[in-house]
């Protein structure tokens, strides 16, 4: 769906004391009442969609309210997941739901630096924070490679993955999906081929590649050939 374009310019030659018609929730200004009325009728139709949650069947004002609520909710996105998640989103070819599932599965049984968890210590679970996580896919490193800092000040320790628990799910699914729409764009690069591209601020912040990787370019070429 394409973003709706607002009427941003004031009527030409508008005088300081001239009576106009203003739409409260968009701040659009109309000199002509019929134009104002037509635009209001359009906004009152239940055809609008919240761009962050995908909620449909809204009036325009309801969609705006839903987006404001979603933006407020997204402040709850755990900061320690920003970098690893945006790395998985950037240049992915998966659809929205599929990518969300892949991300949640990835972090279902793995943990990231900065995350607050519980780990086994002297036979009981104790609160701690992940200091460093394995950066390799080597199975042995994934099992033994977590360094944690105990919340009670007892220092650091290396713990097994099997001895770690989360107190709550890594990321709520709807929060993740909304965050993806806020931080990246699902760009169409041709018929039946799209990729996710992270917003420029994240590309710069985390040094993400600007050019498509070879495997994505190859998939794009295959899609173009199949479309011929």
Compact overview of the structure:
36% of the residues lie in helices and 18% in strands. With 228 residues, it is of the alpha+beta class.
Written overview of the protein:
The structure is a single chain. By secondary structure, the protein is of the alpha+beta class. The chain is built from 8 helices and 9 strands. A 5-stranded antiparallel β-sheet has the order 6-5-4-3-7. The protein has a two-stranded antiparallel sheet with strand order 1-2. The protein has a two-stranded antiparallel ribbon with strand order 8-9. Helix 4 (96-106) crosses helix 6. The chain is elongated and about 75 Å long. The model has no long low-confidence stretch (mean pLDDT 89).
SSE inventory with pairings:
Elements: E1 21-22, E2 29-30, H1 33-44, H2 60-73, H3 82-89, H4 96-106, E3 116-121, E4 124-132, H5 139-144, E5 146-150, E6 156-159, E7 164-165, H6 173-183, E8 184-188, E9 194-198, H7 200-206, H8 214-227
Antiparallel strand pairs: 1-2, 3-4, 3-7, 4-5, 5-6, 8-9
Per the principal axes of the C-alpha atoms, what is the gross shape?
Answer: elongated
| Strand composition percent | 15-25%
Spatial sequence of strands, sheet with the most strands: 6-5-4-3-7
For the biggest sheet, the summary is: 5 strands, antiparallel
- Going by helix content, strand content and strand pairing, the class is alpha+beta
- Give the beta-strand count: 9
Look at the structure and give the mean pLDDT.
89
Uncertain ranges: none
The oligomeric state of the chains shown is single chain
SS field, number of helical segments? 8
N-to-C SSE series? Answer: EEHHHHEEHEEEHEEHH
Rg over CA atoms, rounded to whole Å, is 24 Å
Helix content: 25-40%
User: How far is the first residue's CA from the last residue's CA?
Assistant: 25 Å
């Amino acid at each position: 769906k394409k973003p709706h374009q607002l009427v941003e310019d004031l009527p030409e030659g508008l005088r300081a004391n001239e009576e106009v018609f203003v739409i409260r929730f968009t701040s659009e200004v109309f000199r002509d009442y019929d134009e104002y009325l037509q635009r209001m009728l359009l906004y009152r139709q239940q055809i609008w969609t919240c761009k962050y949650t995908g909620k449909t069947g809204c009036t325009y004002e309801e969609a705006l309210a839903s987006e404001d609520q979603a933006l407020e909710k997204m402040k709850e996105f755990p900061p320690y997941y920003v970098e690893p998640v945006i790395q998985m989103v950037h240049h992915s070819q998966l659809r929205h739901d599929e990518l969300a599932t892949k991300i949640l599965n990835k972090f279902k049984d793995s943990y990231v630096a900065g995350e607050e968890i519980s780990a086994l210590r002297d036979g009981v679970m104790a609160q701690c924070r992940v200091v460093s996580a394995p950066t390799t896919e080597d199975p042995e490193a994934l099992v033994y490679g977590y360094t944690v800092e105990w919340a009670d000040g007892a220092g650091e320790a290396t713990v097994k993955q099997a001895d770690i628990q989360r107190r709550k799910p890594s990321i709520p699914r709807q929060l993740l999906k909304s965050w993806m729409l806020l931080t990246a764009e699902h760009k169409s690069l041709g018929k039946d081929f799209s990729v996710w591209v992270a917003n420029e601020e994240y590309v710069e912040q985390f040094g993400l590649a600007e050019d498509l990787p070879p495997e994505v370019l190859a998939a794009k070429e295959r899609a173009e050939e199949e479309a011929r």
